[in-house]
């Protein structure tokens, strides 16, 4: 049944227009290299792709949003993109949502979020006061707790924005069950990824660290960008 689903998927996403632009936003303490396989796949399907580094461990989420997203949008506009899409990983989804609180993006089409800590992460709670964690993750890492007043929990997306969320259920952390107490990808609990305004959601057996490079995840991304839904 799953195989038939993916065979059905193939002709649906192969007609992406060249005027479609996709901005990739990597996760916390990562770089654009973490999204390079996905970048290549999107380019092979005729998307204009913007995949750039931003200093995720050096600034607050608000600073990252306001300083680094506008130049990426401008690259899409320079290519005369009829539609601008986003694919985000982890923190990238929170940075984008922070930007969208006070800004509108011209030609915004669809957003796919991979493992977004939309309600924070117990891992950030557990490591919040750890000096090494603070040094590695910087100001943004301190904002990703599950507290009601944390940055993720203060964000709300307009229901008119088409958002698809992919969550992982495979953890590389052997003691993760003692931190999360529910299905998780090793960094983010499945329940934390979901928001009320999402258009579609799918759970896949992938880890937080490597989900953006997974071939099956790439197929789901392509389908949502083309049709606004995943293949279930």
Helix content: 25-40%
How many individual helices?
A: 10
Structural domains: how many:
1
Q: What radius of gyration results from the CA coordinates?
A: 17 Å
Query: How would you describe the shape?
Result: globular
Proportion of residues in β-strands: 15-25%
Strand order of the largest sheet: 2-1-3-4-5-6
Structure in words:
The protein starts with a helix and ends in a 5-residue tail after the last helix. Strand 3, helix 4 (91-102) and strand 4 (108-114) form a beta-alpha-beta unit. The protein is built from 10 helices and 6 strands, in the order αβαβαβαβαααβααβα. Residues 1-12 have low confidence and may be disordered. The protein has a single domain, classed as Rossmann fold (3-Layer(aba) Sandwich). Helix 3 (61-78) crosses helix 4 (91-102). Strands 2-1-3-4-5-6 form a 6-stranded parallel beta sheet, sandwiched between helices. It has helices at 2-9, 36-44, 61-78, 91-102, 122-127, 131-142, 151-154, 177-180, 190-193, 215-227; strands spanning 20-25, 48-51, 83-89, 108-114, 162-168, 200-204. It has 232 residues and is an alpha/beta fold.
């Amino acid at each position: 049944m799953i195989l038939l689903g993916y065979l059905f998927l193939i002709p649906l996403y192969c007609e992406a227009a060249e005027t479609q632009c996709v901005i990739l936003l990597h996760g916390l303490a990562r770089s654009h290299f973490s999204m390079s396989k996905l970048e290549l796949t999107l380019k092979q399907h005729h998307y204009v792709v913007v995949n750039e580094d931003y200093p995720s461990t050096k600034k607050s989420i608000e600073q990252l949003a306001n300083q680094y997203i506008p130049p990426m949008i401008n690259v899409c506009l320079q290519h005369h993109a009829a539609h601008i899409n986003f694919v985000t990983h982890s923190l990238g989804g929170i940075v984008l949502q922070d930007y969208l609180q006070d800004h509108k993006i011209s030609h915004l089409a669809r957003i796919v979020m991979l493992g977004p800590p939309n309600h924070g992460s117990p891992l950030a709670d557990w490591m919040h006061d750890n000096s090494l964690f603070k040094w590695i993750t910087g100001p943004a890492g301190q904002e990703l707790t599950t507290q009601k007043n944390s940055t993720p929990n203060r964000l709300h997306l307009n229901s008119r924005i088409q958002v698809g969320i992919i969550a992982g259920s495979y953890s590389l952390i052997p003691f993760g069950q003692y931190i999360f107490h529910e299905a998780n990808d090793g960094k983010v609990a499945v329940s934390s990824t979901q928001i009320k305004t999402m258009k579609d959601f799918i759970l896949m057996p992938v880890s937080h660290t490597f989900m953006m490079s997974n071939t099956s995840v790439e197929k789901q991304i392509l389908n949502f960008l083309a049709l606004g839904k995943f293949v279930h």
